[in-house]
Amino acid sequence: MSDSIVPGTGVTLTGYGPQTFAPHLPFASRGYFFTIPGTFPEGIHASLHVTDWKMAVYRTHSRARSDWEVRDVNGNRKVWAEATTRREAVGMAFLEVARVRRERAAEIAHNRVSILGLEPVPPYTIEATAGTTFVLTPDSVGILTRIDPPAEGATTATYDVTDLDTGATTTVTAGGTTTLHPLTAGILHYRCPCEPAEILAHFENEDDATSYGLEGLTVMWPCPKTTV
Questions:
Q1: Distance of CA 85 to the CA centre of its chain
Q2: pTM above the 0.85 mark?
Q3: What is the enclosing helix (H) or strand (E) of 104?
Q4: Alpha carbons 28 and 17: distance in angstroms, whole number
């Protein structure tokens, strides 16, 4: 089922049953799982994003009344919220996680500046923008779409290839004069307002960022919104 807990946030709840947790663990035998994204809340630098947190919300019966409680499942199993309704408990858990993560981000930024003499966040970010493998033969260049293992009785794999000129799909035998050429492209961001979709790495200085790009990418270009 789906609940809108915090304005603009969709939270999917998935029920669990008695066999999910061992009896000694501090979770009810029945309840619901939901996820708090590692990118939550907005405004925290990407270098501080964490893995998604799996949370459980369930009824408690240790008090005079039955309340709802939220704990993280894969971490310290901390109680993040308690409320009289499930919806309110989940919403309060989001708010508490946001508070803790913002405080942590502010503390890290302060320590970077005051103790390490760095900028509040790493100024260089490399974003992955494309990953393609080309199949090269003496007669053609195409994009690899699939690798098929050797057929019965054969010893050589084959490649399904999309021709760059015609868009047609052909099959090419591996080995011999056929080679694979991977192409990875990226963008170097420097103090720009962009929010990269797929981040490869963060760096403190241009030399390290450039070295990473030269070694790990086929091509890398600066973001047009970069602040010099």
A1: 31
A2: no
A3: helix 86-114
A4: 9
